[in-house]
């Protein structure tokens, strides 16, 4: 395939990221498979990115994620500076066939504002589409800029103008799904695990309360705001309450965390994360929001761990109820389902992940979207109805 794609990862974290980094991990999963298909990749990220690509473009030497904690008037130029560098590159070069953008809001707005002289662009929507109504509700990509979702349910909730720019959805993938059905399975323990950034939408307080009431061990794994370890949060003292996620944890989750039945272990990564999830009886998702993508869901399946979850957002698309997990609309039922999930077979979860959620599957689907976006960008405009 002769195709050069500028992959815009943004200025916040390196690719791959050091630990947590949802979008950057998606890009790190996608790009190697695109290159195996013959796609040339120009990565727009930060200077510390190490992902092998044909070329790199960076405005900042290192990730700017820590600046997101600063007041808006001090940080509002970071993403714009990065996008300015991207636009300069696009204007100077004629060999970029398509831009695949992942930068929330400002990436989409900037690419659309380039007008007809810009290359075709695909903007992947990784987040809650109830955000940015003034942008999404009046989007005009000029026939050149299109969007895709990470689930059908995400796009179904999108404003009409955004849906009219959509070329479909591509489910997220994980490298763990490669040969997942042939990797030895560790012995299962009794614990459930909730993996992810701790905040009200993820519902860790619900899980902790149910673990205490029903009587199953629960491990909470993920950062609390900027605090990646329990000792970091403890050392911050009252200052931590300036962060909304830290306030949520301290007020709603911590009262249920006793270090025995319910534990918070902070951020885990690599083999430690995989062992924690693979040895769990279930991965629990007591969601309070419409989860758009569910990276942690497909990772759990690839590691042979059934999912117990609130049936919100993308979960009904990813989970086969009664085969790879158990879903409910009643959060009070989740605790009982954690115990009932022992009848589900880990091998079934791994087989499904190996067929549906590999990087190769995701890359092939994105290549199809790239071709669709390019065709639409070069198609003559449809005459307006009389």
UniProtKB/TrEMBL annotation:
It holds the Pfam family Glyco_trans_1_4. It comes from the Bacteria. Signal peptide: none annotated. Residues 20-133 form the Glycosyltransferase subfamily 4-like N-terminal domain. Keywords: Glycosyltransferase, Transferase. This is Glycosyltransferase. It comes from Micromonospora echinofusca.
